[in-house]
């Protein structure tokens, strides 16, 4: 239910008048009420106070200018917040400066604090540039600090969505600001600012409110200055996408950099820093030699609990002692036998594998397929993890 009333201070009610009462009706009603409640004729304990209220109400309602100001303020302030009609202060921007083209911006802000969170909706009076700063700051807070509490996650998501949807929709707050400033500027005899504030207020006024505003504007001298430009609320809406866009860009750049660095590392590793592989080799002549340099091999660390390096041969193959068909056979294995990849030659022609007994040898990389083929024997040394 609305907290606004057409007669928040009860001036019409205490005189027994309708909102459309004419001058003659106002005078007649005042005389009747004053005669009834005059302390000289009424011994009721409330007579003095009531008579004073009648006098104050008549001073306002009988004066066409004061009555119009009262009617305008009644449309923007509830009784509890009704200001002093004769001492209105101009609402200023965030720097405390008077400025005509102001608005009220309300943004919901959620801050997580691990064990708790805050959820506030401060209303700020500002110019357009200040509004842009507020939008960016609030978006940054919600997107960086709004997630640090589990119950607050849903509130933060709702706040982000509501801020995007509702920016520029607070009609009543902006009507209050601009009508108040219209009247306050007029009291300060700043008639140009008063007229322009009233013109802006019409953008937020409904029919009855617009009628009252136009009546007040008709009492002011016309202003030659053009009406200030309307605020670009679409720009404020889109600005709220900037912070998540930047965060997403940074995240993607981080992932991309990691991928690029890994690829460059592999290229460099394969080109300049290959592991020199030593093992006992057997030539076809039958000669066996230890610590002969067989080839440059890109080494893959062996973790026998890691399934990601398990491959299987796609057909029966001979495992060679070295990365060439001229080396002796280490062992022959059946098709679909599961092995562990422990390295490969820089040209990616030969793969170094581990077989079930823990020995390592070489097969062509084209003979391998990623994943487990035949079941791994219980006593195999290629995989010791959970089966």
Short structural description:
With 387 residues, the protein is α+β, with helices and mostly antiparallel strands. It has helices at 11-15, 23-37, 47-61, 64-74, 128-145, 152-166, 171-187, 191-201, 207-217, 233-239, 242-272, and strands at 103-106, 109-112, 117-120, 123-126, 275-282, 288-299, 310-313, 317-320, 329-333, 338-344, 350-354, 360-364, 368-370.
Could you explain the architecture of this structure?
This protein is an alpha+beta fold and 387 residues long. Helix content is 40%, strand content 18%. It has eleven helices and 13 strands. The chain has helices at 11-15, 23-37, 47-61, 64-74, 128-145, 152-166, 171-187, 191-201, 207-217, 233-239, 242-272; strands at 103-106, 109-112, 117-120, 123-126, 275-282, 288-299, 310-313, 317-320, 329-333, 338-344, 350-354, 360-364, 368-370. Strands 5, 6, 7, 10, 11, 12 and 13 form a seven-stranded antiparallel sheet that branches. A two-stranded antiparallel sheet has the order 1-4. The longest helix is centred in the middle third of the chain and has 31 residues, at 242-272. The chain is rod-shaped, with a radius of gyration of 42 Å. The model is unreliable at 268-294 (pLDDT under 50).
Write the layout of secondary structure elements.
Elements: H1 11-15, H2 23-37, H3 47-61, H4 64-74, E1 103-106, E2 109-112, E3 117-120, E4 123-126, H5 128-145, H6 152-166, H7 171-187, H8 191-201, H9 207-217, H10 233-239, H11 242-272, E5 275-282, E6 288-299, E7 310-313, E8 317-320, E9 329-333, E10 338-344, E11 350-354, E12 360-364, E13 368-370
Antiparallel strand pairs: 1-4, 2-3, 5-6, 6-10, 7-10, 7-13, 8-9, 10-11, 11-12
